[in-house]
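This protein record is not my work; I was only asked to verify it. Where you disagree with what is written, explain briefly why. This is what I was given:
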Amino acid sequence: MAYKHIFLWLSIVLLLGACKAKKVVQGNNTNNENIISIETNEKKDSVYTPLKPVVFNEIQNGKTVQVQVNQKFSVQLPSNTGSTGYTWAISHLDNDICTHLSSNFEGAPTMIGAPIKHLWHFKAIKTGTTNLIMQYTPANNPPNMPADVRVYQLTINVQ
């Protein structure tokens, strides 16, 4: 008989807990198929918090992505800085909309000359749109000098 009461109370607690679960919202834009939206939690104190770390890579090159104000995100690009002398450099970013926080290398090359991951970390500051343009140039060339370079471009739409 006591087991029936315990089972009843546990059922009620579980039911109440399920009713209070928060709903996950995914932003989208039906007007432009090239916009990539980031999953967010419900609005809390006017700040959206990403559910998982947001990392953009070569797949998003030339695309438009959406992030929220105060959201942190990263760009991950392959780099052979140690063996070739080439490095990624930011050649354009509106620092009023997004700010560059830091950058670091991740992993170790599996063999001499193999690329490693170069991560660039940013934070969305206010609503608006900016282009992030990065160039892969020899370390002794400033980013704005003409050279045989690779370019990474990401249009960032901050909402």
